[in-house]
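hey so u asked for the seq, here:
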Amino acid sequence: LRYVARGRPDTVIARRAVTVDEVTATLAGATTVKAGEKLEVTWTGPGNRRDYIAFADADKAYYTYTLIGSGKNIGTLSVVAPDRTGDYELRYYLHADDRLLVSIPITVE
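ran it, structure tokens below
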């Protein structure tokens, strides 16, 4: 990172090394939920307005999701479980590029 004074020539007045880390997220909640019911999920992450938390299967398809929409980097929200029973993952996605940040296993009964 450099602070540059414009001139002839430009002069670097100050500089500092900066490390850019990869964005991360966490999810926490019950490990089972009944089909079609809401699951309360606690999350941490970037909290971009259109980031979302979704139920997904092994084929990477998601079934239901809830937008975070908070502008905060921690929160709690409800996601409706799929209508079908089985093993799923709960996932935090970045909206900007649909990048998966974290997933946890969950069983729909």
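The CA atoms of residues 5 and 85 lie 63 Å apart. The first strand starts at residue 2 and ends at 5.
lmk if thats what u needed
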